[in-house]
Amino acid sequence: MTKVLILTPVKDAAAHLGRYFSNLAALDRTGLSLSIGMLESDSLDGTFTLANVGLQQLAGTFARVGIWQKPFGYRMPPGTPRWSHEHQIDRRAVLARSRNHLLFRALDDEDWVLWLDVDVIAYPRDLIQQLLAVGRSIVHPHCVLDHGGPSFDRNAWYGPAETHMDLMRAAPGAVPLDGVGGTCLLVAADLHRDGLIFPPFLYGRAHPAARCPGPWAPRQPGEIETEGLGLMAQDMGEQCWGLPRLEIIHAKS
Predict the structure, then answer these.
(1) Most buried one in 22, 43, 150, 194, CB count within 10 A?
(2) What is the full DSSP assignment across 171-239?
(3) How many angstroms separate the CA atoms of 100 and 118, rounded?
(4) What are the structural domains, with CATH classification, of the chain?
(5) What is the pLDDT of residues 175-210, one digit of tens each?
(6) Cα–Cα distance between 55 and 60 in angstroms, integer?
(7) Global confidence as pTM
(8) Burial (CB count <10 Å: 0-12, 13-18, 19+), residue 38
(9) Alpha helix positions (H), the chain
(10) How many angstroms separate the Cα of 37 from the Cα of each of 14, 40, 159, 186, 253?
């Protein structure tokens, strides 16, 4: 039995929790023992209470469920899109810290960690089995808004041209990635135990794959959060892999 821990940091996620839990309940668990861990931070919409209710409803069918709170005191300026370049380092530093805090609180004896964003709304029931079948330590499916459409998770890329998975669909199988996103990411738990984290700072300034000036310009080269994890994995001797043909769907708003 392969033990997988599904980890999801949440903030102001009340609108997505119903579908999130129904999708988890529908997962094919053949050969798997699944657990769920969530971390709620700085929500204003009752996310913690609703998430706790949803987890308790699944408690009887999953090996373990747990939720924690960690306030970081960070909010984007009102009316500012979360992808605004000038706020990315601060926003993603907090997200990196929330992922690390959740990881350290929730990980027990699992073999794998599946990072899954709450606003991923559709994926195959055998998603985990398909990711495990690749036989790699870090695997990323292709997150899109519509099947066959452009890549939504632009943090998953390869090479100096920042090639995303929508341009790699002709590949017959897994493709190498330098940066990864966190919408859905399978990581061997022992890599996390060995020190693979989500850097809450610009990591890998001397790494050949670090972008300069990059999307946060003006800044020093380096990558943060999930993309920083991608570079750190390489520094630990592990390549990240993407599956351009295995599509998962992200909410459009």
Answers:
(1) 43
(2) SSS-EEESB--SSEEEEEHHHHHTT----SS-B-TT-TT--SS-TT-SS-S-B-HHHHHHHHHHHTT--
(3) 17
(4) 2-250 (3.90.550.10)
(5) 999 999 999 999 999 999 999 999 999 998 767 777
(6) 10
(7) 0.93
(8) buried
(9) 14-25, 47-58, 88-106, 127-133, 189-193, 225-235
(10) 16, 10, 33, 14, 24
